[in-house]
Amino acid sequence: MIQNKSKTQGTESGQAQIEWLEGAVPCSARFDDPYYSRQDGLAETRHVFLAGNRLAERFADAGRFTVAELGFGTGLNFLATAMLWNETASPGAMLDFLSFEQFPMAATDMAAALTVWPELAALAKPLCDAWDNRGDGMEAFQLTMASTRLTVFLGDANIRLPQARLVADAWFLDGFSPARNPELWNEALLGEVFRHTLPGGTLATYSAAGWVRRNLETAGFRTTRQPGHAGKRQMTVAVRRS
After folding, report:
1. Exposed, middle or buried, 190 (CB in 10 Å: 0-12/13-18/19+)?
2. What is the longest distance spanned by two Cα atoms in the chain?
3. Which of 42, 76, 93, 158 is the most buried (most CB within 10 A)?
4. Would you give the distance in Å from CA 173 to the centre of its chain?
5. 220: phi then psi, degrees, rounded to nearest 5
6. Is the pLDDT assigned to residue 1 strictly greater than 80?
7. What percent of the chain has pLDDT over 90?
8. Nearest to residue 42, comparing CAs of 7, 75, 18?
9. DSSP characters for 5-68?
10. Domain regions of the chain by residue span
């Protein structure tokens, strides 16, 4: 059970319901799971998703690069990725970041969560402002900032990903815990992740659950376990077989 928390209830259909843990960490009331590590969410993102996909070295050599993600949440992964892209990519290069989110967070909750990291403020403010002004009932949210284009497909990834016209160089699998949200880690959906990945493309996730790794292997990925973040024993990285 989660202790010492306050709650912000969503009012829109499908909107995330947030419970705040100590340290201003947002937790999903629906899935009873924090959006990121209580130790340091930004450090977790950098360890699991950026380093797990070797993005710093790959960004430096890319003219164009596509990252896709299951679970947009607070937008933290996007902001950390955009910051790294701005620091490492060549002039004229373009980053496409595409994410899937069934239960979007209110802009006020997103902004509150992201204030923990002032180094992200220059990127977080335009994201939160645009997120706050998105239209009701829209199927996709889009935002362009300098050499980064963001698209968030709103709705169930099990429906939206098979319909999406994208092929990613790298994937972030960042749904809530597989034990609490198995619908975002099922064999069919991870098969779609494989289908929407370039040969030799990579993915990373904080999860090291055996059945998640088996689903990835069945889809066609070659998986490897690596040390996790902040004392977590293991995480998973994978490469799409040709």
Report:
1. buried
2. 49
3. 76
4. 6
5. 130, 5
6. no
7. 88
8. 75
9. -EEE---STT---EEEETTTEEEETTTTEESS-SS-HHHHHIIIIIITTTHHHHHHT-SEEEEE
10. 40-240
What is the pLDDT of the chain when averaged over all its residues?
93
Nearest CA to 102 out of 36, 176, 50, 38 is that of: 176
Transcribe 143-164 into DSSP letters: EEETTEEEEEEES-HHHHHHH-
At 186, give phi and psi (nearest 5°).
-75, 165
Q: Which residue has the tokens 């790298």?
A: 170
Residue 13 is encoded by which pair of tokens? 């259909």
DSSP one-letter code for 165: -
Residues 6 or more apart whose Cβ sits within 8 Å of residue 57: none
- As to burial, measured by CB atoms within 10 angstroms (0-12 exposed, 13-18 middle, 19+ buried), residue 134 is middle
Nearest to 148 by CA among 79, 54, 52, 211: 79
pLDDT band at 138 (very low <50, low <70, confident <90, very high): confident
Structure tokens at 165: 């016209």
What is the rounded radius of gyration, in angstroms, for the C-alpha atoms of the chain? 17
| Tokens representing residue 230 in the block | 């902040």
Q: For 132, how many CA atoms within 13 A lie in the half-sphere containing its CB? A: 12
DSSP, res 120: G
User: Which residues on adjacent β-strands are paired with residue 142?
Assistant: 151
Place of tokens 């973040």: 229
CATH code: domain 40-240 is 3.40.50.150
Centroid of chain to Cα 107: 17
Residue 12 — very low, low, confident or very high, per pLDDT cuts 50/70/90?
A: very low
